[in-house]
Write a structure and sequence with these properties.
The chain has 13 helices and eleven strands. The chain is of the alpha/beta class. It has two domains: 2-137, NAD(P)-binding Rossmann-like Domain (Rossmann fold), CATH 3.40.50; 141-169 and 196-258 and 272-294, UDP-galactose 4-epimerase, domain 1, CATH 3.90.25. The protein binds NADP nicotinamide-adenine-dinucleotide phosphate. Residues 6-12, 31-32, 35, 47-49, 67-70, 83, 102, 104, 114, 137, 139-140, 143, 148-149 line the site of NADP nicotinamide-adenine-dinucleotide phosphate (NAP).
């Protein structure tokens, strides 16, 4: 039995679909049973913040997909560390043999925001017993639907990366990689950096979004410090805003610009282009709410 956590999220939902289409035995861990019903598979109620709920969730589970959205920390502490360590403990106690974990590209000791948090969880998982595989994605194309990490000023997309490109990856492709790993023997002890097929600048992204929406969506360069100041003014905790600025400075050096062959290697097909992603999500894009910073 495969347990999918974060099952109602951007990766978990297509992963459940992919596993069902392969005929794999799958159970989704959800916080809200009603929300989980739409997944069309067995569900179990579980919450990373309630370790006792993870015990029944892991019952009969052989393989675990470990993922969840990171809540915005008020004080810089990442709840994800405590939450995912609890899930790893429960998996080990239940005799889970394999864990496929969603991490982040450049996860490293001392990294800002998710980069440092995922590094700590990766290290914990590596020392915990079950076989592991780490998925380290580049930025998600879905950020342009959810607004996570995609900001606007006066309706224009904010480029805090100084024109540097990012090799955004579609969460459907991350899910396809996870499905291949969870149903096959390969990838034990491996870390895969997952990217899309090309790296795009904000100017190119704005052009592609404009073409799909049939109206011009502009973009504006905002230096990282100014983005941080705008976020603070919106009530975002200062430390979080500063970390966003620091990450933006790193991306501006081209840290997310490379592309890898991992999606093709794991799934046997090319990753989706940004244009293909937009075409498949045109309706959602029309109603997407970017985080407006001024
Ligand atoms: N966004 C990016 O560009 C990017 C890039 C690289 C890596 N990542 C990493 O990818 C991961 C997923 O990020 P995402 O924001 O896209 O999230 P997501 O996959 O959409 O995940 C949200 C899911 O987590 C579940 N969840 C949240 N809190 C939970 C809790 N306490 N217990 C159980 N389930 C919980 C949510 O359930 P409900 O439906 O109940 O809310 C939902 O199913 C994060 O670890 C992030 O660091 C993100």
């Amino acid at each position: 039995m495969i347990l999918v956590t974060g099952a109602t999220g951007s990766i978990g939902t297509p992963l459940v679909r992919a596993l069902l289409s392969r005929g794999a035995p799958v159970k989704a861990m959800v916080r809200d049973q009603e929300k989980g019903r739409a997944l069309g598979c067995a569900t179990v109620v579980g919450d990373f913040d309630d370790p006792a709920s993870l015990v029944p969730a892991m019952e009969g589970v052989d393989r675990l997909f470990l993922n969840a959205g990171g809540a915005q920390p008020a004080d810089g502490a990442q709840p994800m560390i405590r939450q995912q360590k609890a899930a790893i403990d429960a998996a080990r106690a239940a005799g889970v043999s394999r864990v496929v974990k969603v991490s982040v590209w450049h996860a490293r000791r001392g990294g800002r925001l998710a980069e440092g948090a995922h590094w700590e969880i990766e290290e914990y998982l590596k020392a915990s017993g079950p076989a592991w595989t780490m998925l380290q994605p580049s930025g998600f194309m879905q950020n342009f639907l959810t607004g996570a990490g995609a900001f606007t000023v006066g309706g224009r997309l904010v480029d805090a990366y100084g024109g540097a490109p990012v090799s955004y990856v579609d969460c459907d492709d991350i899910a396809a990689c996870a499905a291949a790993l969870l149903t096959g023997p390969h990838g034990l002890g491996e870390t895969y950096v997952l990217t899309g097929p090309q790296a795009l600048t904000y100017a190119e992204i704005a052009r592609e979004i404009s073409a799909v929406l049939g109206r011009t969506v502009g973009q504006v360069q905002l230096p990282p410090d100014e983005l941080a100041a705008a976020l603070r003014e919106k009530g975002v905790p200062a430390r979080f805003a500063d970390d966003v600025a620091e990450l933006s400075r790193q991306v501006a050096t081209g840290s997310l610009a490379a592309t890898t062959t991992a999606v093709r290697d794991l799934t046997g097909r090319s990753p989706r282009t940004f244009g293909e992603f937009l075409a498949a999500n045109a309706e959602a894009l029309r109603s997407s709410l970017f985080s407006t910073v001024s």
